[in-house]
Design goal:
Helices cover 46% and strands 12% of the residues. It is α+β, with helices and mostly antiparallel strands. The chain has 11 helices and 4 strands; from the N terminus they run H-H-E-H-H-E-H-H-E-H-E-H-H-H-H. It has 2 domains: 2-167 and 225-237, NADH Oxidase, CATH 3.40.109.10; 174-219, no CATH class. Helix 2 (22-32) packs across helix 6 (100-123). Strands 1-2-4-3 form a 4-stranded antiparallel beta sheet, sandwiched between helices. GO terms for molecular function: FMN reductase (NADPH) activity. Residues 7-160 form the Nitroreductase domain. Keywords: Flavoprotein, FMN, NADP, Oxidoreductase.
């Protein structure tokens, strides 16, 4: 059942040495393309990185060498207005994509595409992991795979036969994310401490990498400082000016 598959997701970071075939990759990507897309723009592209040297360098730049070198397939999930520019030229037109709205559309399209790909992969028994670390060195990674203006990597996605079985991490309760008619922040005073206890019990009981940490503690530590402050300038070089 699809819902049970979705609720069984756990990131996989250790894969068996079994590369995906071209046919397997094409099947997954084709399924992913049937995700919803704003105004049918399909503002995304996927770079399938098969070259060993490029994968090694990608691992270094993203600070995820084990996954990038060991996965059955490595994808860069990219926002893409370059192809749309080519489409417009067929009609003798130029496109405008330097607005914040266009950025949101492209990132949303990539997210929907990627999640479809991930779900398709997991339905076939593969494990997957998103690699946000590609934004650590977005400019260098863009050069590594020759991304033109209008294209940038949003995240990586590794796919492969799992060499590990991770426990599913408990998500926030539905009540924490579902609001009816009005946003209710008062409920967090009760829900979040209870969720902290749930997460602490999970970390203490899981089979590897046991630790003691509250969810709220981790979030406070993660979000009390800026991350990747160069991204606005890097995106501007790609044509995204936040107008």
């Amino acid at each position: 059942m699809v819902i049970e598959l979705m609720k069984s997701h756990a990131s996989v970071r250790d894969y068996k040495d079994q590369p995906l075939t071209r046919a397997q990759v094409h099947e997954l990507v084709e399924a992913a393309q049937y995700a919803a897309t704003s105004h049918f723009v399909q503002a995304y592209s996927i770079v399938w990185v098969t070259d060993e040297d490029k994968r090694k360098r990608l691992g270094e730049l993203s600070k995820n060498p084990k996954q990038m070198e060991g996965a059955g397939a490595v994808f860069l999930m990219c926002a893409d207005y370059n192809r749309l520019g080519h489409a417009a030229k067929l009609q003798g037109e130029d496109i405008v994509f330097d607005q914040a709205e266009n950025l949101l559309v492209a990132v949303t399209d990539v997210g929907l595409l990627a999640q479809n790909l991930a779900l398709a992969a997991e339905s076939k028994g593969y494990g997957i992991c998103y690699i946000g670390g590609v934004r650590n060195n977005m400019e260098e990674i863009s050069k590594l795979v020759d991304l033109p203006d209008g294209v940038f990597p949003v995240y990586g996605l590794t796919v492969g036969v799992p060499n590990e079985a991770n426990e599913v991490k408990p998500r926030l309760p539905v009540e924490a994310v579902l609001h009816e008619n009005e946003y209710d922040e008062a409920k967090y005073a009760e829900i979040l401490p209870a969720y902290d206890e749930t997460i602490m019990a999970y970390y203490a009981a899981r089979s590897n990498n046991q630790k003691t940490a509250k969810w709220s503690e981790q979030m406070a530590t993660f979000l009390n400082k800026p991350h990747r402050p160069d991204l606005k300038d890097v995106l501007a070089k790609r044509g995204y000016l936040f107008k």
